Amino acid sequence: MVNINKDRARTNCGTPAYAAPEVLIGLGYGAKADVWSFGILICEILGGFTPFGPKAIQIAVAQEGIPESDSAGM
Q1: According to the model, what pLDDT value does residue 3 have?
Q2: How far is residue 7's CA from residue 20's CA, in Å, rounded to a whole number?
Q3: If pLDDT is split at 50, 70 and 90, which confidence band does 38 have?
Q4: pLDDT level of residue 13 (50, 70, 90 thresholds)
Q5: 3-state secondary structure the chain
Q6: Other CB atoms within 10 Å distance of the CB of residue 34
Q7: pLDDT over threshold 90, residue 8
Q8: Which sequence spans correspond to the domains of the chain?
Q9: For residues 50 and 40, is the Cβ–Cβ distance under 8 A?
Q10: Which sign, positive or negative, has the C-alpha torsion 52, 53, 54, 60?
Q11: What's the half-sphere exposure (Cβ side, CA atoms, 13 Å) at 71?
């Protein structure tokens, strides 16, 4: 039987907007990265945007009341 906790994948494939941070950095990753990607997919299906994409940034800026031109330098 395969031990999921010790076996780590190291391939980098897929869309960066859906990939877990450890995948983008190039570290080994396991099943938790799949759960991350699935959560991003569910967020996009239910909300219509990815939580770390440009639309999410626009929403966060609007909620904070910061003009977008001021937030670009942050």
Answers
A1: 46
A2: 17
A3: very high
A4: confident
A5: CCCCCCCCECCCCCCCCCCCHHHHHCCCECHHHHHHHHHHHHHHHHHCCCCCCHHHHHHHHHHHCCCHHHHCCC
A6: 13
A7: no
A8: 21-68
A9: yes
A10: negative
A11: 13
